[in-house]
Design goal:
globular; 30% helix; zinc ion binding; ADH-like_N; NADPH:quinone oxidoreductase family protein; 6-stranded parallel sheet; Quinone Oxidoreductase, Chain A, domain 1
Length: 333
């Protein structure tokens, strides 16, 4: 079978599309015939050796996939060949087949396409878990989303709106601002300079201010966003797409009773499978009802995956890039 292979950590140009043996499931595992796999910024970091998870080399990147079960291992009773599934794979999804623990699978509703399903697990799962379970966002609150046109940012925008929050979307260009307006942002700001962010946010938030910041970016805009929070505000640390990990003077937390909340969805999936399943069920229900829809900017082939990862690295992607494996023998949905 064909798979994208990382044989050494470093530049994305090191990745190679190769023929590799098809996987076999161990106890408690299943093999998925992959129809679609989405690209995520952690895939870039993992290939560079900069992510908190470092797979043994060589490995295939790709943290989420959707397709059809083609084999099950010993002890697997809830899944059988032919089931349409989505999965958090951690890595391994950018291949025609991948092996994954059965606890990481969720059923794909008949009303959803595999492309949609492959775009749900990482970014939309992160967004819902962060906003509901970590920050306990309430209807009527205002949520500031940094990097709101990216994969997890656009997910957070939609999820927060679905939860009844008012959303201020912060982005780096007018084109990205237009996307956020189409996705229903209540207000949009284009980053200018870090020292101006707090005043920009305050002008848009009005007297009620910002109760929650969703930050997958980090870097120079993190502290101004944190300082824009009202008394008792919650700051969600989601990632560091800007590259730099910010440091906060803790007096800014103390003086306004603000909370800093870490969001590590990948570890939640491992530690709390029931919460993982509940989050995906809610997301699927919303998609089927037409209340949210994954923002898929393009569908590409496996041979274009490296260029897609490079675009993510350069922060040139809006929404999600989906890799379609059209020669798997299974029909697209």
């Amino acid at each position: 079978m064909k798979a994208l292979v990382c044989a050494q950590f470093g530049a994305l140009d090191n990745l190679r599309l190769q023929s590799v043996p098809a996987p076999t499931p161990g106890p408690g595992q299943v093999v998925i015939q992959v129809n679609a796999a989405s690209l995520n910024f952690p895939d870039v970091l993992m290939c560079q050796g900069k992510y908190q998870v470092k797979p043994p080399l060589p490995f295939t990147p790709g943290a989420e996939a959707a397709g059809v079960v083609c084999a099950v291992g010993a002890g697997v009773t809830h899944w059988q060949p032919g089931d349409a599934v989505m999965a958090s794979t951690g890595y391994g999804a950018l291949a025609e087949q991948c092996v994954v623990d059965a606890t990481r699978l969720a059923r794909v509703p008949a009303e959803m396409s595999f492309a949609q399903a492959s775009a749900m697990v990482v970014t939309y799962g992160t967004a819902l878990y962060a906003l509901r379970h970590c920050a306990n966002v309430q209807a009527g609150e205002t949520v500031l989303v940094l990097g709101a046109a990216g994969g997890v940012g656009s997910a957070a925008l939609q999820v927060a709106r679905q939860m009844g929050a008012r959303v201020i979307a912060a982005v780096s260009s007018d084109a990205k601002a237009a996307l956020c307006r189409r996705q229903g942002a209540d207000a949009v700001l284009v980053y200018t300079e870090p020292e101006q962010l707090k005043s920009q946010v305050s002008a848009l938030a009005g007297e009620s201010g910002v109760q929650v910041v969703f930050d997958p970016v980090g870097g120079d805009y993190a502290l101004p966003a944190f300082r824009a929070l009202v008394w008792g505000g919650r700051y969600l640390v989601v990632g560091f797409a800007a590259g730099a990990i910010p440091a906060f003077p803790l007096n800014f937390a103390l003086l306004q009773a603000r909370s800093v909340l870490g969001v590590y969805w990948g570890e939640v999936i491992r530690r709390d499978p029931a919460a993982y399943q509940a989050v995906l069920r809610q997301l699927c229900d919303w998609v089927v009802a037409g209340q949210i829809a994954p923002v898929i900017s393009a569908e590409i082939g496996l041979e274009q995956a490296v260029e897609g990862l490079k675009a993510l690295q350069a922060r040139q992607v809006t929404g999600k890039l989906v890799v379609r494996l059209t020669d798997t023998g299974w029909p697209a949905r």
